[in-house]
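ARCHIVE CARD
Drawer: 12
Card no.: 0347
Subject: one protein chain, sequence and derived structure
Cross-reference: see card 0346
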Amino acid sequence: MNIRWISILLVLTLILSAGCQGKTGGENFKLPGCLFSQKAQQQAVPSGEKPGPQDAGTWYKKGESFYRLGKYNAALECYDKAIELNPEYIEAWRKKGFALVMLGKSFEAINSFDKSIALNPDNPESWCIKGDALAMMGHKGQALKNYETAAAIAPEDPSAFAKKGLMLVRLGRYKDALLSLDKSLKIDPENSDALSSKGLVLEKLGKSAEALKYYDMAVSINPRNDISWFNRGVTFLSLKKKDEAVKNFDRSIELDSGSASLYGKAAALDRLGIYGEALKCYDRIIALNPKDSTAWNNKGDILVRTGRPEEALTCCTESIEISPEFPYAWATMGEALEKMGQKSGALEAFEKSLVYARRDKDAYLEKYLNGTIERLKKK
């Protein structure tokens, strides 16, 4: 029995149950209408004269350029300068909050969002943006409350109900999610984010064919909605239509080359047996985030299965250095060591994996490990 699909499916489940690409709070998810796309982050900082001493707007734009490049400390300095020159600059307070989120300064970030709300508490956008930030930090319940406030302030705003619906999906409240998304679509039947999120709910409810209809509507309305293409790919993968899954993940990657779509494409290519291309996807994920322990482990797993256990051992060792209690990385290490003829080392790795699998109450992995350990001890 091979354990690779448990690890891959865990990643795809996390991404699907979430919905701007973020790496705070240990999560990796895609949320509509949040922050910037990967392509936007590659734009260069504009050259030219330095911002004028009293020009808050120019400082803000400079901060935006740094933010898109992922230079959050530099962006923060610019937003602070803009706020110093204009303390009521709502957008600068908002973006300062996002820069602080990306720097892991959650408490300061919330204060910044609260300041933007205090300047105009009847602006639903401010509440939604704070909700986006809370979602990025993994505070789902608090994020939902902010979306609910936005929807109450602006009951004719489809985006507030769409965001609320997606958060309800993440909380596993699928019936409530459908109600909120249907409200959004009643206001605006062509809201591609709401259509995509409704497809996600239907996928969660096991209605894959119906989910595809909503994804199709979403991409026909907004062909540049990378989230809809990504969700379509996952649905095709669950329907075992692997070639179609790869095409959809490729389209999603064209629009936003973050790790979420790359994970999906890697899973589809792995199932198709196109291991070299799957490895390239994991290499791209690692290039985006060298501390992604799951990507290191999944790369190692493919290397084990393709007869390259020494290289696999390097990958799972890297994964364990990042996440010392990651049971799948220990299991992959055990497989690599067994392939290399190192029985005692393999047993030790499998037994460590078993400890963490039991802690996580991972019954499927635990069953696999018990059988493997028993088999090795009989050798």
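Annotation on reverse: The two ends are 18 Å apart (CA to CA). Residues 1-53 have pLDDT under 50 and may be disordered.
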